[in-house]
Amino acid sequence: MDKDGGKKLVIQLIFKQMIDLLPSKKFDILARKHKSDRYYNRFTS
What we know:
This protein has a domain at 3-33. It is flat and about 35 Å long. It is mainly α and 45 residues long. The longest helix is centred in the N-terminal third of the chain and has 18 residues, at 3-20. The protein has 2 helices and no strands.
């Protein structure tokens, strides 16, 4: 794995840990309200 791939993996893991702290139902409501997935195909809320 190259340097950049390792950094991306660590950032993704940290981001997932932060997201796991949020109440999922509230997060889903806010994501729909603000249409946060409108331009993303690979990573959805």
